[in-house]
Write the structure tokens for this entry.
Amino acid sequence: MEIEFRNINKTFGTVRANIGIHFSIPAGTIQGILGENGAGKSTLMKILSGYILPDSGEIYLDGELAKIENPADAIRYGIGMLHQDPLDFPPMKALDNFMIGKPGSLFPARREAERAFLELRDQFGFTVDPNSYVDSMTVGERQQLEILRLLWLGVRVFILDEPTTGISAQQKEKLFLTLRRLADNGNTVVFVSHKLEDVEALCDRVVVLRRGELAGQMTPPYDTDRLIEMMFGKVIKLDERLPCSATDQLVLRLQNVAIDDYRLQIRNVNLEVRCGEVIGLAGMEGSGQELLLRACAGLVRTVGGRVIVNGKDLTGKDTHSFMRHGVTFMPASRLEEGLIPGLSINEHFILTGEQKGVFIKRDKAKSYSQNKISEYSIRGFPESRVEALSGGNQQRTLLALLKEELSLILLEHPTRGLDIESTIYIWSKLKERCAKGAAILFISPDLEEILQYSDRVIVFFSGRVSPPLDATLTNVDQLGQLIGGKGWEEIFEKEQVGVSNAAQ
Amino acid sequence: MENEVILIGLAGVLASAAPVIFATIGETFAERSGVVNLSVNGTMLLTAMAGFVAAVLTKSVVVGFLVGLIVGALVALLVAFSSITLKLSQVAVGYVLTMTCRDLAYFLGNPYVGIEGVRINVVPIPVLSDIPILGTLLFKQDVMTYLSFILIVVAYVWIFKTRPGMMLQGVGERPAAAHNRGANVNRLRYIYTVLGGALVGISGPMYSLSVKAGWQGTISGLDGIGWIVLAITIFGAWNPLRAAFGAYLFALLQWLGLVLQPVLTGIPSQVLQAAPFPLMILTLLFVNIGDAEWVDRVLAQLPEGTRRAIVRIFRALRSQPPAALGTPFERQ
């Protein structure tokens, strides 16, 4: 199906999300939509899929004006969207998710639906189990489920919003193969991303959005520098590997740590983290890295072993004890666990600040906040509410809120959903902390990020924990294998050899 | 003979649980769609009074129940309008409404206190009522009690087995995803809130025309049951079968309070009458105890086998509310 956008406009409050967007997507292609955070990509796609309505403008499908007023209309036209955070029902089974919304008789034919599910699944080589619960599935599997659902609904235009965020390298490879197949079968795929390498690897053509406007279009061969310039309006250079600033002083020691979750068991984790060191935790979502990270912050209770911070045994203590010993945790969900929606940047600084007494000295706090805002180049004012900031600026705010003297910083997806510019900035700030003696443990689904910024890497696979690997001696391929559960014997053998060498 | 008395008593338990079942399932429907209707207690009192008065004036119990249904639906419509359309706090609106409806019931019902009324009769079902034990228990009841049995099954099948019921689960769980699948979230919320209110509205006249026939104003003994209904909705994990179990448990406790009175002479009768309320709340406390952090900490020190067994029990007891309960939905 050929899709044509004609002069689409959409405003949220004072933000102009889409300004006169005008372009067309030919049938049977993979169209990339590239742009930094807040460029208006998702808005445009939500308009195409009927999730939101445009203020003005029309969409033409195969040359005819389409009236898309809600997602049901879009599905009738054969347009389906996979949202960045898959819009599914976590406490329900995959099969129920698959069936909800499919028109039909009062009592749905479960068996028939299951057959269709398995047929489509096998056709695409997916692995989702129709009887597993969505809240126990990885983001990659949830995407597969949504793709199957859209296929069953007879969708011919697939919109994917940032689908490579939060999935492993293997899952990404599989996803790309699937999208290729969909396009080869005559479907149109619209691939929304802020990741240049993904767009370049997959798409037949690309449009770039910048601040709500169409900044340009390109077909292969892609000129990366030119694309970056279209995205940001200026040229940005990617970073070199930053030097390791590790010292000999120990910050964190885990001895035979064991953690239990109702799905996962982690046993015998031994780890020593030194000042200034960055350790990346790699693994598919839900492989245990989240549990270990939270255990280091005192947010998850260990069921065995010891957790020692700065020489002090904090096993079984609550998270406030960990905080008192210089441990801080930055969660992946910035607005839910990190910041307080409804409060301004200034109020956040007041809450975390050192002001004594009952009454708040707002003016004093304001100048402090103003300094921090310029120091961390946050695009906002002391009065700006945090939920109104873009993802990148929320993350900068969280960083700015960190206390000065910290010994251990634990980060969950520190650059999730951030564009290149923000990512580079966030890491430069984090590395400054390392230079001052803090150690960092972080989780990322992005193996490139892990290799780029960590000194050592630990891989997780369904509760198994690898010994720390030297980041300069491993590579994306090896990590990808380990994440998928392959090549584990080798690293343990190597470890054994290393241990016996040391013994001699 | 002794056995026969106990059997009739238990049949009475089933009958006196019937209004609680209607109200709880009504509330379950509303909450499944994401709307908390906190006005249940007031609605039950107001509809008990209104249904009774209507039945007395028209000499028709059918009219009594219809009036109850309509009044209940109207109160729910107010809750729906203020929370879905005006996006006001569901808790505040529901609470104010429950107080207003209660006072209205006492004020408007005042002229009718203690007058002779009508009531629905027991209709034994031929053949079935002759079955030993079960016959007395299940098939010598009034029409509304039979309907309560049917309602449990229909509500369960609707929510968990039908296409619209699955969408209802979706609307309460994640309205954005339901919207994405073509549901009109706010319209569905209106429908289920009003339907739920109608069911709560039927439960009022079930008291004044059957279980506790008549209208006695402030001493009708109905005040407070609506709050228990809200507790049983949670205890029931928003599942009609489990909710019905909770309702029967509550009715059984009330009956035991009466039966044990002559035996336990040392305990004041008021204590026994009031006991079912705190007992119900106590059971509610245990439902989600496994989620508490301190329980986690205590469990972590137990040996592995014991810990796993206890965790499994806690997970089975657990009652998770629809994730979007009480939050308005806006499509941007």
In short: The CA atoms of residues 156 and 187 of chain A lie 5 Å apart. Confidence is low (pLDDT under 50) at residues 498-504 of chain A. Chain A has 18 helices and 21 strands.
